[in-house]
Amino acid sequence: MKFRQIGALASLACCALALTMCTPKSSSDKWELVWEETFDSTAPDPAIWSRIDRGTADWNNYMTKADTCYAMRDGNLVLRGIAAYEGDGDTVPYLTGGVYTKDKKAFGNGRIEICAKLQGAKGAWPAIWMLPDPKRPDGSWPDGGEIDIMERLSHDTIAYQTIHTYYSYVLGHDSEPPHGSTGRINPDDYNVYAVEMYPDSLSFYINDVHTFTYPRIETEEKGQFPFDGDFYLLIDMQLGGNWVGEVDPEQLPVEMLVDWVRFYQRKE
Description:
Helix content: under 10%
Radius of gyration: 19 Å
Oligomer: single chain
């Protein structure tokens, strides 16, 4: 009986933790919710989201727009990484799904939060990140910057949060100031990943725990802080690559479940 009671208490505690992890930052004296996506319909809003095209980089070389890598389930957007199957007409060993707001919606000078659950698999590399709005004159990479709100490798119990710029990537100033950090996640449940964008800094959070801040500094070097403009959001289930390593096809399919996205702006 005692063990059953302990188990019941543990279950309640886990449920409470899960609810806490996916609880958004409520409107307060500091922030006001101005936009949200709850993924409660039969498909993501086509006025906001597009499926990502295939490319030649590690992160998008298996991307597909095929329905096999996309679903809407229980109020979640589901993005899958799967082994390609014989007869599908494709030439790659794996297929992955991803969406972005490119050319449709951009974000800047505010706080963006994403609640997601990440299944683990060897070689899985889910990511939530931002790139500069293509309309910006400095929109090319890495000059326009990159904001990695979350990247997870395989079965890790941590997530990476990083920035990339001409200053950090090309000139090699990746510790002046530090350009990234990690934070603990619950690998079996939902977690909330966030970044606050200010004219002079970016501050990163996991489950509302601050991980690091990247500031604008005084320097004559090129491209240290290109983050005072608008960025679009990417959410994708990636497989393989130089960083995460080889994929174990026996651990596929793997899914990334996105419960919601919320954007806040500071109250005046």
